[in-house]
Amino acid sequence: MTIKLIVGLGNPGNEYKHTRHNAGFWFIDKIAEQFGITLSHDKKFHGDVGRGTIFGQEVRLLKPDTFMNRSGLAVVPLAKFYNIQPSEILIAHDELDIPAGAIRLKTGGGHGGHNGLRDIVPHIGADFHRLRIGIGHPGHASKVSGWVLSKPSADDAASIDKAIDCVGEHLKLIMAGNLDRARNGINGFKLS
Hints:
By secondary structure, the chain is α/β, with parallel strands linked by helices. The protein has helices spanning 23-34, 72-81, 115-124, 144-148, 154-175, 179-187, and strands at residues 5-8, 40-42, 47-54, 57-64, 89-95, 103-107, 129-134.
């Protein structure tokens, strides 16, 4: 099964642009730039949408313009309109339970408390692929909201950027549906 839709989760607006919660947007921006895919606003799909070719595969990119907890409003109509199955979707999002500079590729599972996934899973099921971009944890549940909505330190930002670059090196495998091999490389990534 090939990947036909790559979604990056985040919050719209300049005040959120550099916050940890927007790691999914950072991933989309990087691959859009790498493969020359232009994103433009599409109000029908509540987000910025682009279409292009990545390693010979036609793919759509999506950055919802809804807030994180309403991500399903963008993902669900686009997937249904283009008849894209959950197994053909990769969703990139920030992940508290993984340190900054680490990244994990997984398929299926629950929402893990992530508000963006929580809004998507009831509508399309859980069988999509997730790119979990580590942002680290502030240490206590009471600090989570402030943590995800604040900018990472310069070191953490550089670490997150390197982890996203690692995915770029495995994107050919992901696009071809060779997720097991891609998972081995991505999940084993360590900052040197």
